[in-house]
From TrEMBL:
The lineage of its organism: Bacteria, Pseudomonadati, Pseudomonadota, Alphaproteobacteria, Hyphomicrobiales. It comes from the Bacteria. This is DUF4166 domain-containing protein. Residues 37-216 form the DUF4166 domain. It comes from Bradyrhizobium shewense.
């Protein structure tokens, strides 16, 4: 396993992996916003592998915080697939695998976070380039979240824009009391092939519920 803190070399995709031009994320932003992204971020979100192939990122959890309510909410969310972090350990390895889904034209994401004791925690989700905002994330049992994409201070930012339940072709909005509140994910380039991922969940009544940040590099094949 390669840690983002241990490796200083620029990682590259395997020579056997076929790369395609990916305009799916580019289509979510204005020309002005896309142009404000660092070149490394632009390249990372313009690279697409063939259907069924994967890109792997390896790193380490820098920070993790739960409020008391946030921790219990994360445990309860395991009933629909565990879409939120559940461990309190910082300084542990984290691996993210992004696989192209040829059936939906989207991506399957798998996040594996080690623990200092016990088995690692695994989060599965699927991104689809659909819906009113152009991007949706499905976490299990038909539960999905619409995401709005923006660029803030050269950081690629994804913010929740409503939660829903998919029943066949019917999408039913979930009431706010059944949701964790506002979710924000950021991707900030750090230079030298590294980037920082952050996850924040803030409830309109209970405040900050969850914060996690991790530093990654693309794995060398």
């Amino acid at each position: 396993m390669t840690s983002a803190r241990l490796s200083s070399s620029n990682a590259s995709t395997s020579a056997h992996t076929k790369l395609l031009d990916d305009r799916r994320f580019r289509a979510l932003l204005s020309d002005e916003d896309w142009g404000r992204l660092p070149l490394a971020t632009w390249r990372r979100f313009s690279k697409r592998v063939a259907d069924g192939e994967s890109v792997v990122y390896v790193g380490v959890v820098d920070e993790i915080f739960f409020s008391e309510i946030g921790w219990w909410f994360a445990q309860a969310a395991r009933l629909i697939g565990g879409p939120l972090p559940t461990g309190r350990d910082a300084g542990v390895p984290m691996i993210v695998t992004v696989t192209e889904d040829g059936t939906t034209g989207g991506q399957t994401w798998t996040r594996i976070c080690a623990r200092k004791r016990g088995f690692p925690h695994v989060i599965h989700s699927a991104k689809r380039f659909a819906g009113p905002t152009g991007l949706e994330e499905y976490v299990g049992f038909g539960v999905s979240m619409a995401l709005r994409t923006a660029v803030e201070d050269q950081t690629l930012t994804f913010r929740s824009a409503g939660y829903g339940l998919q029943l066949g072709r019917l999408w039913i909005p979930l009431p706010r009391w059944l949701t964790p509140g506002d979710l924000t994910v950021t991707h900030r380039d750090l230079g030298d092939g590294a980037f920082r991922f952050t996850l924040d969940v803030i409830h309109p009544r209970y405040g900050a519920l969850i914060h996690q940040s991790a530093t990654f590099r693309e794995a060398v094949s």
